[in-house]
Write a structure and sequence with these properties.
alpha+beta, 21 helices, Ribosomal Protein S5, domain 2, Heat Shock Protein 90, single chain, five-stranded mixed beta sheet, 21% strand
């Protein structure tokens, strides 16, 4: 039998290693910037073009390399970081395995210029697909300049799996942010297609966090500092009231190396228990200093997962440190996150019904008002379904008190609400419906606990969640606008400036055309800033536009992670941020408007996020409850 096992050529072996280490342009950014940090650079400049697909360039003022080192850095498993196996368990540098440069050179065109300190002549190396094209002396400044061009040019099967420029740039920004946060004493800058995205001079940790995550982050931060014999903690957590639904602004660093750890994240969540809602997540930037011999960083190719010698000890210390930090700065737990002042705000129904609209907080389904004239544009709705709804109100004007159905047959006539039976109702039918359907809309609505609306029907009532109901109404109207027409714009007398983080600014630019279709007149003015010249004509003036759009972007990220259609993501996210919230007091007319518009929706029984908008109770159901 002939021998069949052969050694792989270096070029193929390097490409296999690249498959583990270099997944996208952001992987190149990570490896090159980490090398700059290891070279003791105090200035690191990152330049990318075409979201890194065309060019990734890192310029630093580090120690530089000799001619021999410049050549050796492209050899597989060539490293200055370790000498023996035991060194793997006392790693103090960012890189150490010696695979990065060899892997990058195997799948891209690489140019290296480097010059060590106190040397006038440097070294230039040009390499393509692991093959050296040029190796010569050159004149360059102290430090290293590495340019990676045409990533995956020789591996088209890998190249086609790269995402859009927006997605790839998002990953690059994330890697940049992690390195910038880990080393606040180093100057960092990021240039993308001739635009400077970040300019971060050396600073303390708090200043660096604000520089990376945005100016509004400063007010959110609570310092956390704790020292023990086993481990030290330093950093910041966000105040509970600023917790978000997504996990974007959460960073752990162990010995200045960014890591991911669900276990430690759970410790943070446990520390915030009783302070934030279950579906929200706090901001945190936590640095953990521990003896390198007590951790193993060589458990994953990306080096973002590590093992602790005693995870339980670190978990408990971290939980206590965060609790202590929150307590020292007067952050007290709240037992009920949706607690309203139920008794202090109570107003008898007679007073509520006769109070003027000017004394009540108003809202709308498209951000401000229910405009029946707009509803006439919604065509081809199911009239039969409207008739089904109409039956629920038959005889309502004759009901003077709640009575038990006299016969079983009578109780069985109650309609069942389900998505198959409930379809859109013509808006013009609502406005011109018989008096038995419209005469007592306002009188038939009662708000309880500033959260729910009770709406009477013929033989029972609907219990409506005002937040979920409003989200459903807004979602369907926004989605229609995104597909059919532009919304009227109300110009602002004093345009507002919107300052976002780099990642959020990237997302905003991506969805700006769709946002404008909804009636937002927003322009990008450079850096991470936008100017808001106009708002949808139906959006209430009492909305804080910066908060509304920030919440919309956070919800949009969630929808995008679920791989939803862009328009659906925008409609969902804006409906959540613009919708009324639990705890908001509504007058009778507002409740009536909300119920009318909800029943006109295509799927009135569910919010855009899947929650039930209402529950139906029949008189028979109530009778059974009281008969037990």
């Amino acid at each position: 039998m002939a021998d069949i096992i052969q050694l792989l050529p270096d070029s193929i072996a390097n490409q296999i290693a690249a498959g583990e280490v270099i997944q996208r342009p952001a992987s190149v950014v990570k490896e090159l910037m980490e090398n700059s940090i290891d070279a003791e650079a105090t200035e690191v400049k990152l330049v990318v073009r075409d979201a890194g697909k065309h060019i990734v360039q890192v310029i630093d003022n580090g120690k530089g390399m000799t001619e021999t080192d410049a050549r050796m850095c492209f050899e597989r498993h060539a490293t200055s970081k370790i000498r023996k196996a035991n060194d793997l368990f006392s790693i103090n540098t960012m890189g150490f395995r010696g695979e990065a440069m060899a892997s990058i050179a195997s799948v891209a065109q690489v140019s290296l210029k480097t010059c060590p300190k106190d040397t006038e002549i440097g070294t230039q190396i040009v390499i393509e697909g692991s093959k050296i094209k040029d190796h010569s002396p050159c004149h360059t400044q102290q430090g290293t300049v590495i340019t990676v061009s045409n990533l995956f040019y020789n591996v088209p099967a890998r190249k086609k799996f790269l995402k859009s420029n927006t997605v790839e740039m998002k990953h690059i920004i994330e890697e940049f942010q992690r390195l910038a946060l880990a080393h606040p004493d180093v100057f960092f800058s990021l240039h993308a297609d001739d635009s400077e995205i970040y300019h971060l001079p050396p600073a303390n940790l708090r200043q660096r966090i604000v520089g990376v995550l945005g100016s509004k982050t400063n007010e959110k931060l609570v310092p956390v500092t704790e020292q023990t014999d086993a481990v030290e903690f330093e950093g910041y957590v966000g105040k509970p009231e600023f917790a978000k639904r997504n996990r974007g602004e959460q960073y752990f660093f162990v010995n200045n190396r960014y890591i991911k750890s669900n276990y430690l994240n759970h410790a943070i969540g446990a520390a915030f228990e009783g302070m934030i809602a279950k579906d929200t997540h706090p901001l945190y930037v936590i640095f953990i200093t521990i003896d390198p011999n007590k951790i193993d960083v060589n458990v994953h190719p990306t080096k973002q997962e590590i093992k602790f010698d005693n995870e339980r000890v670190v978990y408990n210390y971290l939980k206590v440190a965060v609790r202590h930090g929150l307590g020292q700065h007067g952050v007290n737990p709240t037992l009920d996150f949706e607690q309203e002042q139920l008794f202090n705000n109570y107003t008898p129904p007679s007073e509520t019904n006769h109070s003027s609209a000017s004394n009540q907080t108003s809202f709308s389904t498209t951000g401000s008002s229910f405009n029946d004239s707009q509803n006439t544009s919604q065509s081809k709705r199911n009239i039969d379904n409207f008739n089904n709804w109409e039956k629920l109100y038959e005889g309502l004007e004759d009901l003077s008190s709640v009575q038990q159905p006299k016969t079983q047959d009578e109780s069985e006539k109650l309609l069942d609400f389900n998505d198959d039976a409930i379809e859109q109702i013509p808006a013009e039918k609502i406005s011109s419906a018989p008096s038995k359907l419209n005469s007592n809309w306002a009188d038939n609505c009662t708000q309880i606990h500033n959260r729910y609306i009770i709406h009477n029907i013929e033989k029972g009532f609907l219990l409506i969640d005002q937040q979920y109901a409003h989200e459903r109404v807004l979602y369907e109207e926004y989605y229609k606008m995104l597909n059919d027409e532009k919304s009227p714009i109300q110009k602002e007398l004093f345009p507002q400036t919107l300052n976002l983080s780099a990642g959020d600014a990237l997302l905003m630019n991506e969805i700006l055309p769709q946002i404008r279709n909804l009636g937002f007149d927003i322009e990008f003015i450079g850096q991470h800033s936008f100017i808001v010249n106009g708002l949808p004509a139906d959006l209430k003036a009492d909305h804080d536009i910066s908060v509304l759009l920030s919440e919309m972007l956070n919800s949009y990220k969630e929808g995008r992670d679920l791989k939803l259609d862009t328009k659906e993501c925008i409609a969902r996210s804006l409906s959540r941020s613009a919708g009324i919230k639990r705890g908001r007091k509504l007058n009778a007319q507002e409740m009536a408007h909300l119920v009318k518009r909800l029943l006109a929706c295509k799927i009135p029984s569910k919010s855009p996020f899947g929650q039930s908008t209402f529950v139906q109770f029949s008189l028979d159901d109530l009778h059974q409850l009281f008969s037990k």
